[in-house]
Amino acid sequence: MLEIDAQGIPYRELNRLIREAVNAGEDRIRLRNVCGQRYIGAGLRRPVHIEIAGVPGNDLGVFMDGPAINVRNNAQDGVGNTMNDGLIVIDGDAGDVLGYGMRGGALFIRGDVGYRVGIHMKAYKDQVPVIVVGGTAGDFFGEYMAGGVMVLLGAYGRARRPLAGDYLGTGMHGGVIYLRGRADPDRLGKEVRAFELDADDARTLQPLLDRFAVYFGTEPLDVVREPFSKLIPVSHRPYGRLYAT
What we know:
The protein is α/β, with parallel strands linked by helices. It has 2 domains: 1-68; 92-239, Glutamate synthase, alpha subunit, C-terminal domain (Pectate Lyase C-like, 3 Solenoid). It is 14% helix and 26% strand. An 11-stranded mixed β-sheet has the order 1-2-3-4-5-6-7-8-9-11-10, with helices on both faces. The longest helix is centred in the last third of the chain and has 18 residues, at 199-216. The chain is elongated, with a radius of gyration of 18 Å. The N and C termini lie far apart (59 Å).
């Protein structure tokens, strides 16, 4: 494993060192003393595992297509921005706008997340993006979601707030959001409704819960025993009348 001490290194220089190592064939890289450096893992396509000790800056894994990143701390905004494939696991909390326009791969966050997580997330052919959050989320969770799977557990975070903020699923027209518990109807966007899980949902959700337990060393949650519900869109063209007559 290649180790890089990131202390005091500007983000451009750090990312240059990472790209050079990956292009030279390194398949495991450990970054120490990371403190706000942006764009780590940006655009990487080769199979490499990056372990980060510290707090990475915005746009971690932006445009990433295949690598795996594990953050042994918190992360800032824009994690998985327009990510096409790969895995990002965050041991702590994360900021706003995670998974913006995400097309594939998976984000697993142990703790809480901020606002507009999963905005414009979409699926394409066999690519189904996934975001699993162990804690709570701010407003606009799943905003304009067009595809993929989002899971909100509310079990491992530190924030003293409801499971999700206001405008949950606003503008959503594809995909599914699984909640551990019941959503307050007053917090839902008018484009979605809450439903009970069926057998297909259980087959989708349980493997994600099992992966979460493996990544973070928690007790596995049983989808049958927990009070899960799902949000799905009731309209596939929620704003069609605004743009067509």
